[in-house]
Amino acid sequence: MSTAAIPSQGTTLHIAGTAATPEVLTAITAGYPTILAITGHAGVANGDVIALAGFTGADATTLNGQTAVVKNYATGATNDTFAIDINTVGKTITIDTGVTTATPSAWVKVGQLTDIKGTSDTSPDIEVTDLDSTTKEYLPGLPDTGTVTMSVFCVDSDTGLAAMEAAFDARVVKTFKVTYPSGSTPVRTFNAFVKSFPKIGDASKDGVVSGSVELKRSGTVTKS
To answer: Which domains does the chain have, with CATH numbers?
Structure first.
């Protein structure tokens, strides 16, 4: 048995809700990744999606109006920095004290889950065989990022399930995060649209009303 295996009990799924309270940033270190500072581990955490605003400098538009995922948030009491995957190498960007902010999305936990299953990313084969080839030759195409499916108990009062149903009805792409109970990078953040939702659940003798939800991922997964 692998001693590094992560027990799955306690895994959670969240869907991004409305914007939470803006958090004031105190410093920036340009580079890749970009390092931002915030005092006292304010209301952001690894895996949060933040909207950036209020930067100044000649290249401020590199960050202003952008969204990013919080990564590598330090846990030490004196180190309040985190990374974002936006390249600011050689850029002139500064903090406007008291004005520059990161606004996280409010997360809504999806309850009533009995399992979460993700399909592997796959790349198509692009054949590049020509008359000089001695065997067929291929290049990898753009990856298909697959789906995430979950089995659920159909409980109308669950706010997370209600949020996913609303996203399905609106046909919009939302941000989700899966958090494992442990591991060096336990949070997986990704964008997806709700491809299927159980408007009428399955019912059986000696059972409970249940169904399945399918998310179609769009883009890459950020680990944090």
So the answer is: 18-105 (2.40.30.180), 109-223 (4.10.410.40)
